[in-house]
Amino acid sequence: MASTMPAGTLVIAEKLRRNHWHKIQNRVVVVAVGKRLVAGRVKQNDLREQGVFLLYSDSHTTADPFLLPIASIRGLWLVEEFLERKQIR
Fold first, then answer.
1. Nearest to residue 44, comparing CAs of 54, 31, 59, 56?
2. Per-position DSSP letters for 8-26, written without gaps between them
3. Mean pLDDT of 13-25
4. What is d(CA 17, CA 77) in angstroms, rounded to the nearest whole number?
5. pLDDT at 1 over 50
6. 35 and 27 in contact (C-beta within 8 Å)?
7. 29-85, pLDDT tens digit by residue?
């Protein structure tokens, strides 16, 4: 399966308030963690019970989910649309 967001993909995303994070299920998100951004699909949302997201890659090249504790999240955006980006040379 091809990656949903290849490198360089532009996205339209909505920043979510922290009190809405527990509602996210089976959606692609971009998360600010430390000094980096992480993108993935929320397939298991355990924020209320265990305080973590499990983010999965839509590509089969990444087999393991990425465990993301709520304490490490600085911001979260819900991806609404993907825009292809043409390479400029």
1. 54
2. T-EEEEEEPPGGGGGG--S
3. 93
4. 9
5. no
6. no
7. 999 998 888 888 888 888 888 988 888 876 656 567 888 899 999 999 999 998 876
What lies within 8 Å, CB to CB, of 37 at 6+ separation is 30, 31
Q: Which residue has the tokens 């996210």?
A: 24
| Matching residue, tokens 């087999």 | 63
For residue 28, which phi and psi values (nearest 5 degrees)? -85, 135
Tell me phi and psi for residue 83, to 5 degrees: -120, 130
Core vs surface per residue 9-43: b (16+ CB within 10 A) or e? eebebeeeeeeebeebeeebbbbeeeeeebbbbbe
